[in-house]
Amino acid sequence: MESGLVFAAQPNHLLSPSPNVTKLLFPAFFTDRKRLPSSSSLKNKLRFSSSHLHLASTTRCKAKSLSALGSEALEWADISWDDLRFGLVPTDYMYVTKCLKGGDFPDGELVRFGNIELSPSAGVLNYGQGLFEGLKAYRKEDGSVVLFRPKENALRMRMGAERMCMTAPTVEHFVEAVKLTVLANKRWVPPPGKGSLYIRPLLMGSGDVLGVAPSPEYTFLIYVSPVGNYFKEGLAPIHLIVENEFHRATPGGTGGVKTIGNYAAVLKPQSGAKAKGYSDVLYLDSIHKRYLEEVSSCNVFVVKDSVISTPAITGTILPGITRKSIIDVARSLGFQVGERLVSVEELLDADEVFCTGTAVVVSPVGSIAYLGKRVSYGDRKVGVVSQQLYTTLTRLQMGLLEDKMGWTVEL
């Protein structure tokens, strides 16, 4: 068998790079997997039954017409929406396509969600050549589903791929693949106010490589999971500790792209912080050890006298899409927002502190510990600015406010 990925719908259902052999050995799988339309246009509509996804040939349709598809046959997933937390819930389908280095990703496929098999010498396993994205789909009050700024995620993946010497899907391919994956798993999008469907696009070096070099093959995969709040506190103050020994990123490194290695590096200090009762870790710059960078998986903002400040994007901080959105929302509400160096002294003297990210959205900070000193904010209650920004952004994401920004994409 050629090297690369093998996708398992069930233990005995394999999709390999040798389709003729695999069809002979595992014919059942090939009746279950679904061919996707071209990423350049939606040539098929999706309709749903309780257990299978069907493709119905139609004339070309625009993405905005997809909101009504599957409504009659849609059945809700059998889970307790009220008990939803931020964790993996296996869904129905995932999207997959792959290409050779420097090539173009062909039309992808929807396959049953399941384990994948990689060559031991795959680039992602040996040299960490992998990127991921995170975005969400929300169900509106009328039952339709919307995405939030998927094009921004596509652009960020392409930026990261350039830094990591990877081949990336086009923006159009990325967005269409996300749409189709969400539609295929539409019954897993939580009811309004019960959570969201978290979307995880992955780009990885799946080809064989032994010497240090870019992978000869890349796989683009998307899976989804319904989720609740990232922090168990929900919209309640979290408690951070400033890390002054470990660093998340260094100048000239990969801190500014969403590569997988960035997150492995935070696990040790994060685990230590949680063992002491803190929610997460806030990192300082690695040169001066004085200026704020970001929390393990989200950006940080400080508020002083109604002025909002956040660390500038200089290559060591991930350009968060929620961060970018919050800056625009805050300015639209009349706040002055500055992107600059923010010292730890300013942090400790702030009126309010909050974090932003796709998973957390807006998370107010109740207290911060630094060098044995602990500072609390607003009696450890949700701050006024945090609450206002959270409410405005989430209402926009869920379609409860008019989207004057043009950020939401309705399916």
Keyword list:
30% strand; 22% helix; nine-stranded antiparallel β-sheet; 10 helices; nine-stranded mixed β-sheet; alpha+beta; globular; disordered N terminus; 411 residues
State the secondary-structure class: alpha+beta
SS element count, helices: 10
Number of strands: 23
* Radius of gyration based on Cα positions: 22 Å
Give the termini distance in whole angstroms: 39 Å
Question: What amount of the residues lies in strands?
Answer: 25-35%
pLDDT < 50 stretches: 1-72
Helix content: 10-25%
Can you summarize the main beta sheet?
Answer: 9 strands, antiparallel
* Overall pLDDT score: 85
What's the overall geometry? globular
How would you portray this structure in words?
The chain contains 10 helices and 23 strands. With 411 residues, it is an alpha+beta fold. Strands 3, 6, 7, 9, 10, 11, 12, 13 and 23 form a 9-stranded antiparallel sheet that branches. Strands 14, 15, 16, 17, 18, 19, 20, 21 and 22 form a 9-stranded mixed sheet that branches. α4 packs across α5 (171-184). 43% of the residues are buried. Residues 1-72 have low confidence and may be disordered.
